[in-house]
Design brief:
Blueprint lengths: L5 E8 L5 H14 L5 E8 L5 E4 L5 E2 L8 E2 L5 E4 L4 E4 L5 E4 L2 E4 L10 H8 L3 E2 L4 H8 L1 H10 L7 E5 L6 H8 L3 E5 L9 E3 L2 H14 L2 E6 L4 E9 L4 E2 L4 E5 L6 H6 L4 E4 L6 H17 L4 E9 L5 E7 L9 H8 L4 H20 L4
Parallel strand pairs: 1-2, 1-9, 9-10
Antiparallel strand pairs: 2-3, 3-6, 4-5, 6-7, 7-8, 11-14, 12-13, 12-14, 15-16, 15-17, 15-19, 17-18, 19-20
């Protein structure tokens, strides 16, 4: 007797500044999903927010160039209805019933709980953290406060809201020099600047506030950038292998991550002694749990020369491009890309089944 396949809806694109990164991540996920296990559908989301049911073979234009890649928009505009029904807008026909969505929609509106809330409202399983974990993980200020109050080390910071001001002198007196200024609720290093004087500080504040109404001023930390992958629900696990980002510029910028192939070196495994590796793995699992994460996340650290560390941030929908750290860490830990996707889908179905038993 044939085993029925699970229908997977891969959501990609979206309204954020990480739209193009999402498309490249989706391309890699689609290539790795096992067609013998899954019926695979591609839903591309325009920057305007419109959903298109696309052909997996040609859903991208300029797919090998992240600076030019875009959705090859289909004529099949769709929307989601109850129980995972995918409805064609023009005819109101149900084209498919999705068992699990894989939202590889990095950034605002796709990673911050917005999309997760839609999927939960329409009663369908989805990969990754739920609404709460996604919203917390996207907000660097909230993330840091929760970790700090739980006793985990975080980089010293100041939060600034729209309308509030602080001088470089005041900020550097508290945090030192140089400083890093970031939008609180943005990813992929977008809107981040380094400041070492009043002029660069003013420019950095202006840029960060152009992206968000709340920004973060952080102490510049001299340390190695180490990353750890985590997955699971109630009993999360961390990757046995950690990775190191060695940026060629002053910090790991958007261009270094995705545009300039020589912008940074990704070292897997990171050269660390076993005691530090174990401490970081334990801290990563603790952070994952404290921040209400489920499914998957990548935890990023700064490790100092004396072996101490701070948690830099969490990424609840990390990149899945061919060079992305998250799948590379699991591969180095003994789990292939395809096996990783199977596991993440299984986690989402387990959570969905448990939630169906709850009395709301």
């Amino acid at each position: 007797m044939a085993i029925s396949k699970i229908t997977i809806g891969v959501l990609c694109g979206g309204k954020s500044g990480e739209h193009e990164v999402s498309l490249i991540s989706a391309k890699n996920i689609l290539a790795a999903l096992n067609p013998n296990k899954y019926n695979i559908l591609v839903i591309g989301i325009e920057k305007s927010g419109t959903w298109h049911l696309s052909n997996q073979d040609d859903f991208l234009i300029s797919e090998n160039d992240i600076t030019k890649v875009s959705l090859n928009l289909s004529k099949t505009v769709v929307y989601l209805s109850n129980n995972g029904h995918l409805i064609e807008k023009s005819t109101q026909r149900c084209l498919a019933t999705i068992d699990v969505f894989f939202p590889i929609t990095h950034g605002t509106y796709g990673e911050d709980g917005t999309l997760q809330g839609i999927l939960r409202f329409f009663d369908v399983a989805y990969v990754g953290p739920d609404v709460t974990g996604s919203a917390i993980g996207m907000d660097k200020d909230v993330t840091k406060r929760l970790l700090r109050d739980s006793g985990l080390p975080v980089t010293p910071f100041i939060t600034l809201r729209k309308g509030q001001t602080i001088s470089f002198e005041e900020a550097s007196a508290k945090l030192g020099n140089p400083l890093f200024i970031k939008p609180c609720r943005l990813g992929s290093s977008l809107g981040i600047s380094k400041a070492s004087n009043q002029h660069s500080f003013d420019s950095a504040i202006k840029l960060a506030f152009a992206h968000d109404r709340k920004i973060l001023i952080e102490q510049g930390v001299k340390g190695r950038e180490i990353e750890c992958a985590v997955f699971g629900n109630e009993n999360p696990q961390s990757s046995a292998i950690l990775g190191e980002i060695v940026p060629k510029d002053e910090f790991y910028s958007y261009a270094a991550k995705y545009v300039d192939k020589d912008g940074a070196e990704l070292v897997v495994p990171a050269e660390l002694n076993s005691d530090i590796v174990q401490k970081l793995r334990q801290a990563a699992i603790s952070a994952f749990t404290i921040l209400e994460c489920e499914g998957l996340a990548r935890i990023d650290f700064f490790v100092k020369s004396d072996g101490s560390f701070t948690i830099n941030e969490i990424n609840t929908l990390p990149g899945f491009t061919s060079i992305s750290m998250y799948p590379r860490l699991w591969k180095a830990s003994g789990l292939s890309y395809s096996e990783l996707l199977d596991q993440l889908i299984e986690f989402s179905l387990e959570r969905y089944a448990e939630e169906k038993q709850l009395q709301n």
